[in-house]
Amino acid sequence: MRIGIDARELCGRATGVGRYLGGLLREWETDSRARSHEFVLYTPEPIAIAPHASHFSSHTIPGSSGTWWEQVQAPRAAEADRLDVWFAPAYSAPLRLRVPTVVAIHDLSFVAHPEWFRFREGARRRWLTRQSASRAAAVITISEFSKTELIERLTVPAARIHVIPPGISEGGLGIGTGDWGQEAGHITGPAARPEAQAPRLERVLFVGSIFNRRHLPDLIRAFAPIARAHPDASLDLVGDNRSYPREDLRQTVAVEQIEAQVRWHEYVTDEQLGALYAGARAFAFLSEYEGLGLTPLEALAAGVPPVVLDTPVARESCGAAALYVPVSDVKAATAALESVLFDETVRQPLLDAAPAQLGKYSWPRAASDTLAVLEKTCGAGREALWTQA
Fold it and tell me: Does the first or last residue of the chain, that is N or C, have fewer Cβ atoms within 10 Å of its Cβ?
């Protein structure tokens, strides 16, 4: 079986979807069952982390990596490569590709909350994702919450949806050990390398792209009373600012007068991220909408208890291994962070509950289950061709 894969998310600074695809590829590179197939990675530029096993090949199609590349350039190349199935790991797939497609749709934030997206971006994503889901032979998603969203918001038949949770890497490390980008410095001062920072009991960490739904201004305001009461307390923010409408985090920090205790790293390497997890005492992720929410689980894998918003998907993913606070309740978030930082009677039960939650997330299992969907899709496509003949 020849499996074509849209690997654009491995180019440049790989974030959520890139790390998801990288986790699958890492397992398929060594899995004996996967070796019976050929994987062709399609990208608009060469990628440094492409697997080197003989059953992998790369097809570089120069372009801008946008919708034209996905819908026109990549399908042209794929048609000539005589694929059996196409795997699209990032919400949408080529609509005119004449092979069965499997698309991974991790969440529907752009459908559930269009106000969080610029009009053109949101409209494009809603249309392409809806069309891709309706045409796909199978849809993969990462939680039961997202499955329900796909059924209710895009009317995808439940029988075509496969819930396959991703793996969680120990210590928050993702794909490989290479350099995934450059770290930004202190929020107001000179650069500070995470690995040079000694662990402190009062360190709070946030990891994830900065969207409005993740309430970073509320997190900063919730941390401010702790910072004023504990001069050694610190807050590390890891992620680039993709908020819309734009949130001015520096201004929020300045208003709270805690500039010396907040560091913003727009992008870090895996090694640096692991050091940040290792040095943290508490993790904060005040997101009101996620397909799953992987970074609180990464924190648990690193032995760091999380404080999260009380949402259905957070309950599904973290269970008894997190403290939950209501949305926009800054005082409750402050109290929860104080408990996780300083109260062992709160911390230890959360950490004791972590193994049961983390056991649900395994890269070998995710890769095996995803490959099974691709194999089944390919088999169904061949059967359809034989029937038509």
Answer: C
Task: Output the domain CATH number for residue 15.
Answer: 3.40.50.2000
> How would residue 178 be classed by pLDDT, with cut points 50, 70 and 90?
very low
Q: Are residues 128 and 31 in the same domain?
A: yes
3-state secondary structure of 284: strand
What integer pLDDT is reported at residue 200 of this predicted model?
55
Domain span at residue 334 reads 173-358
Do 212 and 228 fall within a single domain?
A: yes
* In a shared domain, residues 178 and 150: no
d(CA 130, CA 109): 13
Q: What is the DSSP letter of 186?
A: B
C-alpha neighbours within 13 Å on the C-beta side of residue 93: 29
Q: Is the pLDDT of residue 388 over 60?
A: no
Q: Are residues 321 and 191 in the same domain?
A: yes
pTM above 0.70, yes or no: yes
The 3-state DSSP class for residue 146 equals helix
- 189 and 87 in a common domain: no
List, for residues 206-221, the tens digit of each pLDDT value. Answer: 999 999 999 999 999 9
Answer yes or no: do 109 and 186 share one domain: no
The count of structural domains within the chain is 2
Q: Do 384 and 351 share a domain, yes or no? A: no
C-alpha to C-alpha distance for 364 and 31, rounded to whole angstroms: 9
Handedness of CA 302, 305, 310, 312 (dihedral sign): positive
Listed residue (242, 311, 292, 316) closest to 104, CA to CA: 292
Q: Write out the H or E segment, with its range, that includes residue 170.
A: none
Q: Do 381 and 241 fall into the same domain?
A: no
299/295 Cα distance (integer angstroms): 6
Measuring CA to CA, which residue among 195, 208, 196, 179 is closest to residue 266? Answer: 208
Cα separation, 208 vs 20, whole angstroms: 14
